[in-house]
């Protein structure tokens, strides 16, 4: 029976779907990681227990240790893979909407954050606990910033304003704006700030706001 993907941005479903047709060991490993991602939506990484993961995945504790050395090793592998998934998803969204790549990437990030809250919590609030994933996440940020800065510089050149804003200034703006978007989504989906939730019921309006932050913030 083929695994149904409820959303292309839901990492747990994508993991399981990708394991279809693979060896039994790969399917078991994917099931363990899927179960872990689901549990992280309910509890923080520091409270994650191998026993709970095994129960959710329908395996024995002994089977778990065939694939992972411990809880930390499991989380490190899961988060590192998720960061790559984040990057690929945002790039694909941008490529599919060449006339509006910033909004497309922003919408993808919004959905990735919303549907994978537990893993995003790990990356934003517990990053120092997972050095491997931390390095990959920093690399993702750097690549995204580089892409944004390159796009803005091309636009400035087309407008005859090449050199109007120094590259270092554009880079600082991109990092700052990325932090603002992360803070907004973190307050909305992780800490669930009542005041923010009250004005964020309209998804399209939220995407307009976040896109505006990027476009206005990177303007000269």
Notes on the structure:
This protein has helices at 11-18, 24-40, 50-57, 61-67, 71-96, 101-115, 117-125, 131-158, 167-190, 194-198, 203-217. It is mostly helical and 220 residues long. The chain has two domains: 11-72, Homeodomain-like (Arc Repressor Mutant, subunit A, Orthogonal Bundle); 75-217, Tetracycline Repressor, domain 2. Helix 6 crosses helix 11. The termini are far apart.
Q: How does the SSE layout of this entry go?
A:
Blueprint: H1 11-18, H2 24-40, H3 50-57, H4 61-67, H5 71-96, H6 101-115, H7 117-125, H8 131-158, H9 167-190, H10 194-198, H11 203-217
Helix pairs in contact: 1-2, 2-3, 5-6, 5-8, 6-11, 7-9, 8-9, 9-11
Pfam family, one: TetR_N
DNA-binding region: 49-68
Domain HTH tetR-type: 26-86
General shape:
elongated
CATH topology of the largest domain: Tetracycline Repressor, domain 2
Q: Give the low-pLDDT segments.
A: none
Q: Total strand count, please?
A: 0
Termini distance?
Answer: 54 Å
Number of helical elements: 11
Regarding CATH, which class of the largest domain? Mainly Alpha
- Total domain count: 2
Average of per-residue pLDDT values: 91
* Rg measurement, Å: 19 Å
Keywords: DNA-binding, Transcription, Transcription regulation
InterPro entries: Homeodomain-like_sf, HTH-type_TetR-like_transc_reg, HTH_TetR, Tet_transcr_reg_TetR-rel_C_sf
Pfam family, one: TetR_N
DNA-binding region: 49-68
Give me a quick take on this structure.
With 220 residues, the chain is an all-alpha fold. It has 11 helices and no strands. 74% of the residues lie in helices and 0% in strands.
